[in-house]
């Protein structure tokens, strides 16, 4: 029997780890109506959105330091620490008796733990997958989408009909995350970093990122993109329930995540493979794919915000998901084109930090707009950020990337 190439084993291990990370992250959105019912109906949308924003802000602040650590220390052990911490945060969220505990366990512990993972994951994937990088990242992204759908739907089913059902969802998925940390410990190789000891410094790593205008434009685009998509991930199930009052909560969660991430999975899979195929003939195709994806989000955001027909809503969610999948397929691969391989983990951290700090505002701003006006207006406002993000990607593709790569 032919031995499986380790690069695919590694991809499977980190993809499952992030399947659980992203999936458990979405549990909060899936059980948000149940949490609000248990804690009291007087809790505002803004305060509920603040928990989601706390996660994103913690993630964004810590991720550059995680990237720095992943460039200078062993990536396996950083990844294990992140997996264990986020799993513990999810598990403890099930014991929350108020917003404060959720803020600490789900927001801070979960956010910090998850921030340790992407720099290690993307650095390992970039190192082991050269000719297959787009395909590898699309598989990785597909695992993320699948995790969100599976965990959301299962969590909403657990919560249905039982006042403490949402707690069981946090407990079970937190425990599964801890078990997978043990699998990573046993099967993931302790791969040496690309840079040799003494060859790299923090100053050099910062310079490798901040002297590349392309990386800065792509980080600005990521912030706009995260603002829009984080708002969607937190509020779509609630939006579905308010748009269709007769819809059961578990059905709202299913429609709110399944069609979106089905479209995203298809978009990421197709775009990742196409960008790999045409890269030799079109050296900047990863940036062109990013631009197409983020601009394609705009019409479908507006359709979601405006329609009262379930069939149109489902189709719009699927196409919006497809557009985000196109963008996500080269989310890291495009930016890493202009970064020295020795500094890719830290570059991923800085990139994610800038994106998350802006994106952290998405859920809470949507909550404020929902309280003050309507949730439909809150959704429609996301199109503005997709347009701004498209402008940033266009600057990278048509103004700076050729010089930065040269």
Quaternary class: single chain
CATH architecture identity: Up-down Bundle
Name of the CATH homologous superfamily: MFS general substrate transporter like domains
Stretches where pLDDT falls below 50 for ≥5 residues?
A: none
Number of domains: 1
Q: What's the average pLDDT?
A: 84
CATH topology: the name is Growth Hormone, Chain: A
Largest sheet: none
- The percentage of residues in β strands lies in under 5%
Helix content: over 70%
The CATH class is Mainly Alpha
Evaluate the radius of gyration.
20 Å
Name the structural class.
mainly alpha
Number of E strands: 0
Shape by Cα distribution? globular
The sequence of SSEs as H and E is HHHHHHHHHHHHHHHHHHH
How many individual helices? 19
The rounded distance between the terminal residues' Cα atoms is: 44 Å
Written account of the structure:
This protein has one domain (10-188, 197-405): Growth Hormone, Chain: A. The chain is built from 19 helices and no strands. It has helices spanning 6-25, 27-30, 32-39, 45-72, 75-93, 99-115, 117-128, 133-159, 165-187, 202-210, 213-243, 249-278, 285-306, 310-329, 331-336, 344-359, 361-372, 375-380, 382-405. The mean pLDDT is 84.
Quick recap:
Helix content is 82%, strand content 0%. The protein is an all-alpha fold. The chain has a single domain, classed as Up-down Bundle (Growth Hormone, Chain: A).
Would you spell out the secondary-structure blueprint of this structure?
Elements (H helix, E strand, L loop, with lengths): L5 H20 L1 H4 L1 H8 L5 H28 L2 H19 L5 H17 L1 H12 L4 H27 L5 H23 L14 H9 L2 H31 L5 H30 L6 H22 L3 H20 L1 H6 L7 H16 L1 H12 L2 H6 L1 H24 L1
Helix pairs in contact: 1-5, 1-7, 1-8, 1-9, 4-6, 4-7, 4-16, 4-17, 5-6, 5-7, 5-9, 7-16, 8-9, 8-12, 11-12, 11-16, 11-17, 11-19, 12-14, 13-14, 13-19
